[in-house]
Amino acid sequence: MAMNFSPGEIYFMQEYDPQTARPTKYVKIGLVRNGRTSAERIKEHQTGNPRALKETKLFQTPAVHFVERMLHQVYAENRITGGEWFIFTETELRECLESAKDLVADVKKQESIFSAAEAFKSKRSKKAVIVATKSALALHKEYFKEDLIVRELKALVAKYERQLDEKSAEGGDVEDLRSQKVVQTSRFSETEFRSAFPGIYKKYMEATYQIGGSFKMIPNDRYDLSLGQVAPNLETFVSGFHNILDQLKKNPKVLEVAKAKYSYIKGQVALAEWNKAKAENQLRLLCANNAGIAGICTWNRTAKEKVVFSRAALKAERPELYAKFTKTSATTRRVTQAGRTSAAKKKR
């Protein structure tokens, strides 16, 4: 997981009832960065809103986009579909604020680890494979525990999405659960440019000296991990969700329950992927500039000279040519909606 640690502010903004002057259940979790303040953002939202908006809590944090995305995913059950507004009871809001505080503290702690691990990507490795320490062994097992959770939950998500697609193909109304989104993408055609202007193409070829190599985890069959061992509560949840999905074709009423559970899954996947990334980056740091850790990982990094075409240089010096060979196309993607439903917060 590559991390952008650009700093900013995470703000919690809450609506207040004009009659009682008490906070409502509607809370916005947003971010500001690049010199902007949450006070300015709240002022913008206040325009046209008859209810007073006030800052409930503010967190200064690195990796502000990551922190916001994590909070949105972890609390997807409370999210009003399609936006940054959430519905929280007082107890739920306190729990969310505490989770945000812990997440920000964790990200601050991990920043130096991720940055140092990233720096080793550009260092040639020695031939030595070092002996695994107790710390390395523990991190290795933690990585595969979290990886198991991610794989199990993503398989469940895939099954849910297949069921929705089947229901849609049969004429079922599932647009509020799984809809189509058109995404515009631009792509420079290097092949066509080279064919049309071989001389100019050659001019923009540059020799680069790169150090690279894949970091690979070594599986350990002796772990014999199962979801029941790693996360027994999740195993019960997964089993229950499978039962609900098996009922979808016969009982459309379970769709609301399925959406609520899907929202919960999205949060659990986000947490497991974060924990997995932390374990991996700590192992990269332990591996340092060695070729690997015995029984844990391999990380051979070698230097290679490559001759590549510089699109950036062409775009800067000959923008008209770059534009001529850049094509825009539309891609349709299926998007699964997460968010609060009338079935949210059902007993798991």
Offer a few descriptive terms.
4-stranded mixed sheet, 2 domains, 348 residues, 4-stranded antiparallel sheet, 11 helices, alpha+beta
Structural notes for this entry:
The protein has 348 residues and is α+β, with helices and mostly antiparallel strands. It folds into two domains: 1-121, no CATH class; 123-342, no CATH class. It has helices at 38-46, 64-74, 90-119, 134-169, 190-196, 198-203, 227-230, 232-247, 255-287, 311-317, 319-324, and strands at residues 8-16, 23-32, 52-61, 85-87, 129-130, 178-188, 205-212, 216-217, 292-293, 297-298, 302-309, 326-336. The strands form four sheets. It has a four-stranded antiparallel β-sheet, with helices on both faces. It has a four-stranded mixed β-sheet with strand order 5-9-10-8, with helices on one face. The chain has a two-stranded antiparallel sheet with strand order 6-12.
Termini, distance in Å?
Answer: 30 Å
Strand content: 15-25%
Count of domain modules: 2
Query: Radius of gyration in whole Å, from Cα?
Result: 25 Å
Query: Helix proportion of residues, in percent?
Result: 40-55%
Let me know the number of strands: 12
Specify the number of helices: 11
- What does the average pLDDT come to? 89
Q: Which residue ranges are poorly predicted, with pLDDT under 50 across at least 5 consecutive positions?
A: none
Q: What structural class do the secondary elements suggest?
A: alpha+beta
At a glance:
The chain is an alpha+beta fold and about 350 residues long. The chain folds into two domains: about 1-120, no CATH class; about 125-340, no CATH class. It contains eleven helices and twelve strands.
